[in-house]
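HUMAN:
Could you generate one sequence with tokenized structure?
ASSISTANT:
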Amino acid sequence: MPIFENTFIAVYVLVLLFIFGTIFASFIACTAGRVLAGVDWVHGHSHCDTCGHELAIGDLFPIVSYIALKGKCRYCGARVPISCLFTEVLLGVAFVLTAVANPYIDAVLQSGTRGYSARYITDRYMAAQDYQRFSFRGHCGVHTD
């Protein structure tokens, strides 16, 4: 049964895709920042870039924690860039729009293949971060100059 034939299932799947998109955006932003800073991105916990305090579990929910904390660090009060919020919202919306626009969404959801979309989005985000920081690197954070 195609998901868009049942309204409840369609809304449920689209909400889950939005949430997954925001979580993915948060993860990519964190990873990109660490890679560009030359920090180990595999180990360690998320922390405030200003005070270095490790973030609690309640601070890690995309969009919700930004709104609840009014765009500030819970520990030192430093402003969190609004670009973080925009990135999370836009990627959540992109995941939803991709599902709505894809005529084969049922096959994609049933087979679980999302690799190409995730890779494409990751590459675009890393390119934007490189451009924003004027730090152009090759794959795996190796300088190309």
